[in-house]
Amino acid sequence: MTVTRKIAVTVNGLRREAEVPVRLTLADLLRKKFELTGTHLGCEHGVCGACTVLFDGVSVRACLMLAVQADNHAIETVEGLAAADAPLNDLQQAFSDKHALQCGFCTPGILMTLTEFLRDNPVVSEEDIKIAISGNICRCTGYQPIVEAAMQVVKARQGNPS
Amino acid sequence: MKPPAFHYFDPTTVAEAIGLLQHNENAKILAGGQSLMPMLNMRFVQPDALIDLNRIKDLSFIRRGTDTFEIGAMTRQRDIEFSPEIRADCPIVIEAIENVGHRQTRNRGTIGGSLCHLDPAAELVTIAGVLDGTVEVTGPEGRRDIHFLAFPAGYMTPAIEMNELVTGIRLPIWSKTHGYAFIECARRHGDFALASVAALIEVDAEGRIARAAVAVGGVASVPLRMSEMEAGLVGQAAGDDLFKKVSRICETIESAADAHVPAGYRRHLAGVLSFRALRLASMRAQKRRAS
Ligand code: FES
Ligand code: FES
């Protein structure tokens, strides 16, 4: 039984069409059909957060959605944070500055989680950041540099760079 | 890991969804997908048909009546978390929902999905129990109501028919001066609770408890309403001695050992958390009464 459907999805501002099996997950749509492999798959059952993308502006786990559910919706992935030939955005740069990634496997998910969180909550404490990224597992950094990177962005966006 | 093959339907009305349920054997309903999608990915469930409710706009709403909130089954946990009305009049829901998974899962997860999945450790399940919620169920013959305490037919099994759909829940609103507390113990933030306690209390002008409701989640196979504890509270002067005494009732809860903790551990936690929840709820009630 292969049931397919035609869908149209806006990915990082670009409208894209595809014919997909209905059981294809959103994560596999992005990675395999659209070749946007920045969205990572760690657990594929909603535990690790590596696959986090923005769906109509809010963070979701792409392994827990079907590609067909994205029909006529807008997705943002890590590739959309900065154009390939452009400098990193402020959050990405902060991750680089603070060594907030080692192997980088968790990084796209954490960047997308923080993209939404810091957009909605410009003034936050370290504790708030810790709770915000509690749904993302990182096995390398011990989280502290990630929290520091996020706090650097919070301060800089308020006009007082650390 | 890939979901098994299935037929996929995304109806736009409740009537259409019920028609699909009647005509498809071995169908599963997809709400927010934060529990069903992992089970599909791991192939713990293999439905022939998947009926996705996400395009039914009519099932997503929060309405405040005079003394109840009515919440549509497909209302996202996120929308409840950020509802100013619920924060003002039913704050225990907010205190609980902040413990439901993570931001990314609350952005998708729905109240109807949580209630039907009926994990005994799920925060919203405990909340529906403590508030005496009423589940609204729609089937081919129309709508019927089920009191939430009669909703679990057994472990993770709601008492509804195969061709019925949970379409909403009504949650009664307590007085302006009620105190509330939701406390849980989980190994990591966002995990299912090892044990959770939800408590609601009203105190009178003399500091006596006029009304109380307590529910324990995560300990037994279904959420427990602690009616004996409630009876022990009403009419008594609020205070630590009383809360200690009634919390001991948790020692009688039947709980078995499991992969995570030895027998009795959750029961012990339930007692400790009951005391803390009652104390916090009563403090808040007295504070709200004084202001
Ligand atoms: S891959 Fe989606 S949460 Fe782990
Ligand atoms: S940098 Fe390796 S998992 Fe986070």
Can you characterise this structure?
- The complex is a heterodimer of chains A (162) and B (291).
- By secondary structure, chain A is an alpha+beta fold.
- In chain A, 31% of the residues lie in helices and 17% in strands.
- Chain A has five helices and five strands.
- Chain A has helices at residues 26-33, 90-97, 107-120, 126-132, 144-157; strands at 4-11, 14-21, 52-55, 58-61, 74-76.
- A five-stranded mixed sheet of chain A has the order 2-1-5-3-4, with helices on both faces.
- In chain A, helix 2 packs across helix 5.
- The longest helix of chain A is centred in the C-terminal third of the chain and has 14 residues, at 107-120.
- The mean pLDDT of chain A is 96.
- Chain B is α+β, with helices and mostly antiparallel strands and 291 residues long.
- In chain B, the strands form four sheets. Chain B has a five-stranded antiparallel sheet with strand order 4-5-10-6-7, with helices on both faces. In chain B, strands 11-12-13-14 form a four-stranded antiparallel sheet. A three-stranded parallel sheet of chain B has the order 1-3-2, covered by helices on one side.
- Chain B folds into three domains: 7-52, 2-Layer Sandwich (Uridine Diphospho-n-acetylenolpyruvylglucosamine Reductase, domain 2), CATH 3.30.43.10; 59-172, Uridine Diphospho-n-acetylenolpyruvylglucosamine Reductase, domain 3, CATH 3.30.465.10; 179-290, CO dehydrogenase flavoprotein, C-terminal domain (Enolase-like, domain 1, 2-Layer Sandwich), CATH 3.30.390.
- In chain B, strand 8 (152-154) and strand 9 (157-158) form a beta hairpin.
- In chain B, helix 9 (227-233) runs antiparallel to helix 10 (240-247) and helix 10 runs antiparallel to helix 11 (265-290).
- In chain B, 32% of the residues lie in helices and 24% in strands.
- Chain B is globular and about 60 Å long.
- At the A-B interface, strand 4 and helix 3 of A face helix 2 and helix 6 of B.
- Bound molecules: FE2/S2 (inorganic) cluster (FES) (2 copies).
- One FE2/S2 (inorganic) cluster binds at residues 41-44, 46-51, 61, 63 of chain A.
